[in-house]
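Private note to self, pasted from the team thread so I don't lose it. Backbone tokens:
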């Protein structure tokens, strides 16, 4: 049981995922700081509030005489954080990787054009057919009859 767990942990994709989670958490802290310390004060100044958390609050009276607060500013702040994270992930990770994949595919297409000087790549079927023909020739005893001349490569055993 422990060996299976060790194999699971030592897989490359599990380690990559762990690294991604740690970097993602650190990156989220940076983005939250950017939103809370730069964007919130700027937007809060527009709405005359300390930050977005204190802006655009709608107070709704409750049945027991209290007040419920709907904090649209806090939601806008969270939405802004999401948009920033998504933009950074796209422009820093997704776009460069897609560009590299596109260039690699183009290089493969250019390099995939068959060279006239090189023989065609032999497929497994071609190789197996050649082996069969050689075995048939050996079985016939080299009497000059090739596998193709002996009925399509099939030879009856006596």
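Design output:
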């Amino acid at each position: 049981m422990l060996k299976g767990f060790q194999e699971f942990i030592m897989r490359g994709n599990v380690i990559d995922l762990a690294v991604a989670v740690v970097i993602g958490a650190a990156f989220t802290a940076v983005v939250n700081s950017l939103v809370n310390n730069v964007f919130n004060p700027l937007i809060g100044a527009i709405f005359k509030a300390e930050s977005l958390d204190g802006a655009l609050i709608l107070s709704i009276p409750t049945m027991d005489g209290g007040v419920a607060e709907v904090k649209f500013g806090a939601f806008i702040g969270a939405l802004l954080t999401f948009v920033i994270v998504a933009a950074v992930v796209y422009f820093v990770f997704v776009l460069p990787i897609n560009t590299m994949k596109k260039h690699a595919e183009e290089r493969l297409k250019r390099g995939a054009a068959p060279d006239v000087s090189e023989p065609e790549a032999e497929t497994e079927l071609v190789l197996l057919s050649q082996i069969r023909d050689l075995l048939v020739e050996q079985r016939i005893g080299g009497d000059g009859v090739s596998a193709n001349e002996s009925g399509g490569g099939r030879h009856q055993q006596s």
